[in-house]
Automatic annotation (TrEMBL):
Species: marine metagenome
Official protein name in the record: NADH-quinone oxidoreductase subunit
UniProt keywords, alphabetically: Cell membrane, Membrane, NAD, Quinone, Translocase, Transmembrane, Transmembrane helix, Transport
Ranges annotated as spanning the membrane: 6-28
Pfam families: Oxidored_q4
Family per similarity comment: Belongs to the complex I subunit 3 family.
Length: 71
């Protein structure tokens, strides 16, 4: 019974430490977004147009078939 207590105590302490570190980094971290930082990075090339968001469903079907038969 005491083994489970120590293991669960260790897990709780680990979760608390991780949560505290995440909270501290959120609270204390610098927040200075600029236009340069918000641009997507493309190997140093400034993007000239918006990314195309959609692709045909046929492509997804072919990709899934490739994954299935490749294995």
């Amino acid at each position: 019974m005491t083994e489970y207590f120590y293991i669960s105590l260790f897990a709780v302490v680990a979760i608390v430490v991780v949560g505290a570190l995440l909270a501290l980094s959120t609270v204390l971290g610098p927040r200075n977004p600029s236009a340069q930082k918000l641009l997507p990075y493309e190997c140093g090339i400034i993007p000239t147009e918006e990314a195309k968001g959609r692709y045909p469903v046929r492509y997804a079907t072919i990709a899934m078939l490739f994954i299935i038969f490749d294995v």
